[in-house]
């Protein structure tokens, strides 16, 4: 029998498809991007090969994570169509797409809603001062632009994930303000499923020389987030960036309850491999936690989905229910 909900920690069995690594932003801490024109876009045939393989290995969520094509680029329409086609391909194979590809227009979000069970965009930090430092060459990191997308997601009834990037030059007050901004959006729209609290972890490809976010501060931020954010939002931490077992358990004690998508590779932090599920299960069991899989959309949002997506989601819920019970049934 599964443990009570209060003793569960969730994760999403996931795989990341990258339509392109090309990105017109140049965030100083990025370990993902290449310059526009330096990447071959992922083809549907190659994507199908990957998806069939990972489906047989237990993946459920397909995270579509892309570099950003400039809004005024002649390739923008083709880029969005490729993302939509990849999501449609995932659905045709019985998998559940979740798209996070940077700021979109209202119309672009509406188009992708039809082929995604949820979507996401990191808010990172709302302070504009980062536009003078790590975001100096990243036009789409303007806080108001990202806040607008979060609001549009609520208006469109898209189940949504957002989050904070910690340790990129912000102050504790900046983090507080970012959490309050998310809380206000949630109070109005109620569409935010999860907030990721991602500690900056230096990689080999970034140009910025910032340090790793301090472990003790991460626990404090989680506790603060749990105070500020509505109870309906789940706090997520990436276990490949919280590698010390005692720190991971301290994060759970402070209020984190989800470990995000776990798969073969973290495309955003490629220098940090995901731990094995068996390892995580053993660590969590030390304090009585049970690690259980979840879907990329929580049950309370199922009725927001197009009917054909609802049908597929319900099939997956039945599958997971027979395994571990539905830990997000409320």
Automatic annotation (TrEMBL):
The protein's required cofactors: [4Fe-4S] cluster
NCBIfam families: F420_cofG, PRK06245.1
Catalytic activity as recorded in UniProt: 5-amino-5-(4-hydroxybenzyl)-6-(D-ribitylimino)-5,6-dihydrouracil + S-adenosyl-L-methionine = 7,8-didemethyl-8-hydroxy-5-deazariboflavin + 5'-deoxyadenosine + L-methionine + NH4(+) + H(+)
Family of this protein: Belongs to the radical SAM superfamily. CofG family.
Species name: Trichocoleus desertorum GB2-A4
Gene symbol of the encoding locus: cofG
Annotated keywords: 4Fe-4S, Iron, Iron-sulfur, Lyase, Metal-binding, S-adenosyl-L-methionine
Cofactor: binding comment: Binds 1 [4Fe-4S] cluster. The cluster is coordinated with 3 cysteines and an exchangeable S-adenosyl-L-methionine.
Amino acids binding [4Fe-4S] cluster: 23, 27, 30
Name this polypeptide is given: 7,8-didemethyl-8-hydroxy-5-deazariboflavin synthase
EC number: 4.3.1.32
Keyword 4Fe-4S attributed: yes
Functional pathway: Cofactor biosynthesis; coenzyme F0 biosynthesis
Oligomeric and partner information: The FO synthase complex consists of two subunits, CofG and CofH.
Function: Catalyzes the radical-mediated synthesis of 7,8-didemethyl-8-hydroxy-5-deazariboflavin (FO) from 5-amino-5-(4-hydroxybenzyl)-6-(D-ribitylimino)-5,6-dihydrouracil.
């Amino acid at each position: 029998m599964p443990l009570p909900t209060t003793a569960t920690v969730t994760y999403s069995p996931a795989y990341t498809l990258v339509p392109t690594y090309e990105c017109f932003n140049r965030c100083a801490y990025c370990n993902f991007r290449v310059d526009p024109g330096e990447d071959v876009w992922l083809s549907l045939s190659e994507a199908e090969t990957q998806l069939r393989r990972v489906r047989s290995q237990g993946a459920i969520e397909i995270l579509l994570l892309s570099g950003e094509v400039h809004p005024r680029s002649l390739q923008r329409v083709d880029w969005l169509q490729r993302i939509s086609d990849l999501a449609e391909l995932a659905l045709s194979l019985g998998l559940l797409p979740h798209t996070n590809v940077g700021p979109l227009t209202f119309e672009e979000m509406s188009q992708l809603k039809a082929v995604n069970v949820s979507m996401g965009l990191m808010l990172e930090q709302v302070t504009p001062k980062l536009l003078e430092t790590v975001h100096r060459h990243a036009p789409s990191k303007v806080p108001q632009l990202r806040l607008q997308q979060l609001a549009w997601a609520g208006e469109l009834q898209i189940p949504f994930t957002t989050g904070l990037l910690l340790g990129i030059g912000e102050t504790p007050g900046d983090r507080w303000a970012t959490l309050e901004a998310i809380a206000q959006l949630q109070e109005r729209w109620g569409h935010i499923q999860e907030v990721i609290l991602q500690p900056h972890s230096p990689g080999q490809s970034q140009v910025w020389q910032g340090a790793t976010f301090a472990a003790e501060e991460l626990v404090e931020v989680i506790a603060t987030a749990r105070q500020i954010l509505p109870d309906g939002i789940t706090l997520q931490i990436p276990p490949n960036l919280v590698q010390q077992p005692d720190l991971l358990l301290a994060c759970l004690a402070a209020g984190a309850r989800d470990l995000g998508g776990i798969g073969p590779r973290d495309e955003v932090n490629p220098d940090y491999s995901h731990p094995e599920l068996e390892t995580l299960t053993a660590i969590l069991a030390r304090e009585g936690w049970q690690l259980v899989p979840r879907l990329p959309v929580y049950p309370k949002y199922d009725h927001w989905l197009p009917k054909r997506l609802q049908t597929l989601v319900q099939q997956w819920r039945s599958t997971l229910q027979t395994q571990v019970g539905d830990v997000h049934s409320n």
